[in-house]
Specification:
By secondary structure, the protein is α+β, with helices and mostly antiparallel strands. The protein contains 23 helices and 20 strands.
């Protein structure tokens, strides 16, 4: 059976009527945010006092008034039913890294056998999912099931559509009966408030108004792969783990560099257009789409938003990509490394700080060397990243991201900051006392009058840096493509709040002592940069020389794997930091550490068992069948030898997986930390051995006998 032909035929017959026929102007004017309960919609449906009360919470951080809940709930229900919704759900972010929802109908029976549509303020504000059925890291036991979801008024409600209807989704936080955060949203909201409380007083020292409010902003680029749906379902490893556990390298991968920014295939472009229209309706400001470096890899990127809303939108983006791909006979793979030997997928988090007046605090302006406020806050970021390298690394740690970090398509596990030549020169001059500005931006001539001269940036870009300044923001490039961005943002907000607080206190002391503002800021920037410039590196982050210099010369942390990083989460300095800003309590922090260990162990355990299963039930039987044909022809020696390697490696993998159970039985122990380390140190190497032998076998077994879709098929058959 020619599966390549079947997949190509399916690609040519995808449904063209799946794409909305709206014009671009109609998409912009009527589709955008059409499934979002915006402030304008609420204002039109609420009384002036109710709307002003809600607005005070959203814009000034005032405490939410629960007495307005019934009025808001009625407006929300009416709007949702006009949109076709029959159910509502509290939509939340448990510590699984995904989202969760339980749907309830608006239907409320009457005593006479009829029914009405009802939705109360109590139902809006609070619901009770089972807290023991989600990861809690020990905060909740099976017999302690009560948990609460609480309405997050700062993130707008929205409609999620399906083939037979629609559901009103209400963004909520998730907490235990004892009040501890069981989600990623609650600490994120706390960190936003911590950042505001730290930065607002600092801004006042620069002459900002009393009413200024500060929040972090974020735009998260999403990389992903697309493969034919048929190939996906014929690969148990992709279905069970999200990545290929086997696969010999094809003669061609990404070495020709012809896929990046290349022409987007027609079926893929139609999928992208469909997904974008759904995202526009959800108010998600996606801006960019393109082919990524690896064959079969793509990217979608939004523009800046409030970081809490950006985190919600990022989860929705992943959901829409997955759901929409199926309409086109495709599967969207969000794993960090679904294919060995080609680039993996990340999620670059473009982070900055902004006032409620729209002022970007990391905007350097035309004269960055004279922009005291910009230099002050940039110094704070440098200080924060240097002092909390461990937390930034931990925030992106996972078994799946371990396959990507440190490879040539991703930043190294060593955290450093790229400032670029112009900004580095400015800070170096300030440190030396020279001041001023060196090389400035200019025009780039292209050698022909047909082409216009281009404005040239004063500094280059650096794709090897995990934390790079990119003009008016910092790009945290180490986040994994499948993860929630909430924890990385929470960490960024908190560590910068800490640094800004310290520098603002120092600045205030200097001003109180009579020092002029420009002199005081220059002294602080100089001292901060001098103390923390070891974290600044503008060179090649992939080079062996940098790894040596960073680890031994600069004494930077090199936390190569998740388990190298995670045990630092509960270090005393980190507990004190999160407690100081009321972002995470010691119990909440310890719970997250336990969950990270547990998820790591379970992820690798699933991969190990899947590897053994596929080797024994799919790969070895295919080899035996092929051997029988070769034996009849009198030439089976080479294949038999490689098949024996696979069998021996599978036996060793089985022993490695089973050794953990035997050890627990003998010692009576069930320590998740020990399990996780056993998986890293014993099971992963055994899996690698099985794969190496199986990939050798793939290259000598006839294609018609090989039971799995190959890399050639999955990456190149569209």
């Amino acid at each position: 059976m020619n599966h390549d032909f079947d997949v190509i035929s399916a690609a040519r017959n995808w449904r063209t009527d799946a794409v909305d026929t709206a014009t671009p102007d109609q998409i912009i004017s009527s589709v955008y945010s059409s499934d979002v309960l915006t402030l304008e919609q609420l204002k039109a449906r609420l009384s002036k006092p109710t709307f002003k009360s809600l607005q005070a919470t959203l814009e000034r951080g005032a405490t939410l008034d629960p007495t307005i809940a019934d009025t808001v709930a009625l407006a929300m229900k009416t709007w949702a039913m006009e949109k076709g919704a029959t159910h509502y759900t509290h939509w939340f972010h448990p510590l699984t890294g995904a989202t969760a929802e339980k749907h309830d109908s608006f239907v409320s029976p009457n005593g006479d056998g009829s029914a009405i549509a009802a939705f109360s303020g109590k139902e809006l504000i609070q619901a009770e999912p089972d807290a023991s059925s989600f990861p809690s890291g020990g905060l909740r036991a099976t017999f302690e099931a009560r948990g609460y979801t609480a309405w997050d008024a700062s993130s707008p409600a929205f409609i999620m559509r399906h083939a037979n209807g629609a559901t009103l989704c209400i963004p909520t936080a998730f907490a235990s009966w004892t009040g501890e955060a069981l989600d990623t949203k609650t600490p994120l909201l706390r960190s936003v408030e911590a950042l505001n409380k730290a930065v607002t007083p600092a801004l006042k020292l620069f002459g900002a108004s009393e009413g200024t409010r500060v929040s972090s902003t974020l735009g998260a680029e999403q990389e992903y792969f697309l493969i034919a749906e048929e190939y996906y379902y014929r690969r148990p490893d992709l279905v069970m783990t999200g990545r290929t556990l086997f696969g010999a390298q094809p003669p061609r991968g990404q070495e020709l560099e012809d896929h990046y920014f290349g022409a987007i295939p027609d079926r893929v472009l139609s999928f992208m257009t469909d997904a974008e229209q759904q995202l526009y309706a959800l108010g998600i400001p996606v801006k960019t789409r393109h082919n990524e470096v690896a064959p079969g890899q793509f990217e979608i990127a939004p523009i800046f938003e409030d970081s809490n809303i950006a985190a919600d939108h990022q989860q929705l983006t992943m959901q829409v990509l997955r759901n929409t791909a199926r309409k086109y006979g495709l599967v969207a793979l969000l794993h960090e490394k679904p294919f060995a030997g080609v680039n993996g997928s990340g999620k670059h988090c473009n982070w900055s700080m902004s006032t409620n007046a729209g002022e970007n605090l990391l905007e350097p302006g035309d004269t960055p060397h004279e922009n005291l406020q910009f230099l002050f806050f940039t110094s704070a970021v440098i200080k924060a990243v240097d002092e909390h390298q461990d937390l930034l690394r931990i925030s992106v740690a996972s078994a799946s991201n371990d396959h990507r970090l440190g490879a040539n398509e991703a930043p190294p596990a060593i955290i450093s900051i790229f400032l670029g030549s112009e900004l580095s020169d400015i800070f170096d001059r300030l440190e030396s006392g020279q001041g001023g500005r060196g090389a400035e931006a200019g025009l780039l001539g292209l050698g022909t009058s047909v082409l216009p001269p281009l404005p040239r940036h004063a500094g280059d870009r650096n794709r090897t840096s995990p934390f790079a300044f990119t003009g008016n923001k910092f790009e945290f490039r180490a986040a994994g493509s499948s993860q929630s961005i909430s924890f990385p943002i929470t960490v960024l907000n908190t560590i910068v709040a800490d640094a800004v607080s310290a520098l603002a206190e120092e600045l205030k002391a200097k001003l109180d002592a009579g020092t002029e503002l420009d002199t005081a800021v220059a002294e602080i920037v100089k001292g901060t940069y001098s103390a923390h410039k070891r974290i600044v590196f503008n060179g090649d982050g992939y080079s062996d020389e940098w790894h040596q210099e960073a680890e031994h010369g600069r004494k930077l942390l090199n936390l190569r794997t998740t388990l190298d990083a995670v045990h630092h989460l509960t270090d005393a300095k980190n507990g004190a930091l999160f407690e100081k800003f009321k972002v995470l309590s010691d119990r909440e922090l310890a719970a997250r550490q336990e969950i990270m260990y547990d998820i790591y162990f379970k992820t690798v355990n699933i991969e190990g068992e899947t590897t053994e299963y596929m080797a024994r039930t799919m790969i070895l039987p295919a080899a035996v069948k092929y051997l029988s044909e070769l034996h009849a022809a009198g030439s089976s020696k080479a294949v038999r030898g490689v098949a024996a390697e696979v069998e021996a490696a599978a036996d060793e993998l089985f022993d490695a997986v089973q050794a953990l159970s035997a050890q627990n039985t003998a010692t009576g122990g069930d320590e998740v930390h020990e399990k996780a380390h056993h998986m890293r140190d014993q099971v992963l190497p055994a899996m690698t051995a099985v794969r190496q032998a199986a990939d050798k076998l793939e290259k000598v077994v006839a294609e018609q006998h090989w039971p799995l879709p190959t890399y050639r098929q999955m990456l190149f058959v569209k």
